[in-house]
Amino acid sequence: MRFAWSSPTEVALGIMSLDGWCPERNIVLLLVDGAVIGQPFEVTVEKLLGVHGSAEVHRVVVTRSPRLCDVMDALEPFRRDGGAVTRLKIVAVGGGATMDLGALCSLLVDQDRLAATLGPSQRSGLMLFPRTVLRSTPLAMVPTTLGTGAELSSSACVDGEDGRRLLAGEAFRPDLAVYDAGATKTLPGYLVQEAVVEGLFRLSAVLSGELADHRLEDHLALSLTERIVQLGDEIAAQRAAGPVSADTRLELAELNGLTHMALLSFRRSRYSGKAWYVATEISSVIGVRKTQAIALFLPAVFEQMMRGQEAWGSSRRLRQFWSRVCAATRASVSDAPSQGFAQLMEQWCVEIPPLMSPEEGARVVHRSMRRWGAGLPMLYGLTSEDLFAAVALVSRTEDRQALPQAEYGSDGAVPVLIGNAPMGK
User: Fold this and answer.
1) pLDDT tens, 47-57?
2) Cβ-count burial 34-63 (b if 16+ within 10 Å, e if not)
């Protein structure tokens, strides 16, 4: 079954959708997450890609978040042969890191100038690519995790000496996304549950990250919120009794993909989810998964919203979002968003990291301000004082003055743009 809605990416259900996607005489770069190597599902994918005689299947095993050197290494056999580039197709089978590598490879295989811009260190954690930047290499993604929705998103991450950088542009959207329950069969239950948290966070950003109402988009986002919370309850119950069912995993994958659909963010700023940028730094500083960092930090952001700090978002719209969560869940949670979210994480058995030390909290603030704030639009409207106030709530002191002070760089005032891409909405 294939369908497309509000996305240029073709979505297919079932791994057999790859059958024939790479006709004879094509060359396939198959990027495979190291966590699924040798599993029946991965073997089936490799056989499907070669079944029509496209014998040149180059498999690369992915074991970490991509760096520029990983992209160049994966592409080296094809960059030496210009004819091979014209016949190349890329298939990424794995989690977020594998899909990020696939998106980067598909864009950079024949664009040396763009590759050169990703190497040097720079202040901004975001690089925007305008619509005029195009790729010519077809890209298919088969997610083996459930939370990122990267198979339908227009962004990718690359690691460097200065930390993780977010790259955004339509050129990163794949041509084909394939959902198959077999791809997530071995995914641990706690990661399935965390995938619900990730999708719920994206919907909270859509609904509460801005002050203005947009009736159609809000209605869609609230409907998705209701269903993903119900799935969260179902997954928690299934985990308590055994493995999460195939149908539930497949529905969650589709739901998280829908949280990236363009209609949800139509007329909204691309920077409404400010907590994401800070959670990225929390994840790096204390060494936890991004979703764990979100689960730790989001109650603090909700608390700041409810205190009237509109740079984080709208307290009125947050109450609307949280009332829908309360109505959808079977769990007993407070109607106060901050307290209720923490209670929901506990009842879903989501592992929350311990509170940060004051020194870790200070590092998070300064990294966040340097890479995402202090004139950059990602944390627009938030001062270092505002960040200290929020981070103090998840540190081992709620006294903002107790967090160590330090200077952060203020060089550069806008994210790096390739070409003349407009910023903002």
Assistant:
1) 888 765 555 88
2) ebbeebebbebbbebbeeeebebbeebebe
